[in-house]
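REQUEST ID: PR-0412
SUBMITTED BY: lab tech R.K.
PRIORITY: routine
TASK: structure prediction, single protein chain
INPUT:
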Amino acid sequence: MDSSSDSILTVSGLNKTYPGGLQALKDVNLEIAKGEIIALLGPNGAGKTTLISAICGIVKPTSGTVTVAGHDIQRDFRKTRSIIGLVPQELTTDSFESVLNTLAFSRGLFGRAPDPQHLEKVLKDLSLWDKKDNMIMTLSGGMKRRVLIAKALAHEPTVLFLDEPTAGVDVSLRKDMWNIVRELKEQGVTIILTTHYIEEAEEIADRVGVINNGEIILVEEKQHLMSKLGKKQLTLELCDALATIPEALQQYELNLAADGLQLTYTFNTQGERTGITALLDDLKLAGIEFRDLNTTQSSLEDIFVTLVQQSS
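STATUS: complete
OUTPUT:
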């Protein structure tokens, strides 16, 4: 972050070690700006849920501080918790209460005055309005997931945490949810989500953080990350199969595939020169002809996998 004045959430030196000795978070520092969407990516057990729980005041960190809109999460829990909305991973909604009553109760719990219009809008946005009088325990898993999101939005939080919000849900909920996320962003709500679905981060996040073994490996603007770490590959379909890569082409670190009929050259998009012209000249000199060539660029998923392997 460039300046702390526009940051709404600051995590400093956050550590969490559980009684058994497992260190779930290691010196996590994070600065999140008002109104941005940040996606936290990481494999299972990387510390994503622990981090969110610590920021929301559910898990007490071993050391470090979290401030939300200038309020310390430990010292001023009620105030910070009222600013935050949390959609947890676990479905803990087997209640005998109706959908609408659950939302109204949740809103009151955070000290907000009743606002039937707001609750109606939230339920309609999540395609839940026709289920407002149903008891939660009678709903399907997908509908319960929608209720969890609605509950998190009931008290109009300015910071919203979504912990694996679309894990195992249908496509229509995913689409509804992303529409809501975009609308909330326009209203200035800050959104932090953890996700397994990298295309989700690719589509919606402003910044991407990668967490592994309790440490944040990096936090970068998504476009910057993809251009900085994105590799491009040039694939050549050869006319005649090669048994090995000729000595004259060794400097290019080519890969031979498809029974010797495919040559792949990986180059850096940020380099001053791609080296493609020189490669094509050298292929010609070596008497290697190709039928076709195409380029592909690595996705956020490729980058993520590489980063996690490097940090493990």
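NOTES: The longest strand covers residues 7-17.
REVIEWED BY: pending
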